[in-house]
Specification:
- It is built from five helices and six strands, in the order H-H-E-E-E-H-E-H-E-E-H.
- A hairpin with a 2-residue loop joins strand 5 and strand 6.
Length: 183
């Protein structure tokens, strides 16, 4: 009986997450610029997964850093608007091109993870956001607890990343078309 309850609870959680993802997709349909997209994703992600901090950052190769474009945080962590590329988990994920789950941020030697773990965050995810196949940024999440459903949570963040990439592509295309029409 106990395992049936556990499975039922898990399906209930999945169902709620899918409903939330649907709501996010509906909200994003109305987004008209990148700032709105970032705001909707970072705000919504915290309700869908067990994360106390969500961020979206883009690589700035010229200055060898990542620019943090949007943050949702239950407390102020990493007040800086940039993260150095050198020795960062963000660079690792960018170069690998693959989503990553970091079970224990304090157990890595990445500079950004050290800062997050010193501020009480334990586990983290980082997922590339692609527009037309090119990585344009990283969607990141961190939790103050050990995550048991990490593969499922990573799947949800990957879905958010995909929705975000499609929306950014649409918003940028509309902006470009609007700009060209007024030339």
């Amino acid at each position: 009986m106990g395992s049936e309850m556990c499975i039922r609870d898990r399906y209930k959680t999945y169902s709620k997450q899918l409903e939330s993802l649907n709501h996010v997709a509906e909200e994003l349909c109305a987004a008209t610029n990148e700032s709105e997209v970032f705001s909707i994703i970072t705000r919504s992600a915290s309700h869908i997964i067990s994360a106390q901090r969500i961020s979206y950052c883009v690589p700035n190769y010229k200055d060898k850093c990542f620019e943090i474009r949007a943050v949702f945080s239950e407390n102020e962590v990493m007040k800086s608007t940039t993260v150095d590329m050198e020795n960062s988990a963000l660079l690792f994920v960018l170069q690998s091109g693959n989503p990553q789950f970091f079970e224990n941020l304090a157990a890595t030697n990445f500079s950004d993870h050290i800062i997050l773990s010193r501020n009480g965050l334990y586990s983290g995810w980082s997922v590339p956001v692609r527009v037309k196949g090119e990585i344009v940024g990283l969607l990141n999440a961190a939790s103050n607890m050990k995550i048991n459903e990490r593969a499922q949570q990573l799947g949800v963040i990957k879905m958010l990343s995909g929705i975000m990439g499609v929306t950014l592509s649409r918003v940028n295309s509309v902006s470009y078309t609007h700009l060209r029409a007024h030339e």
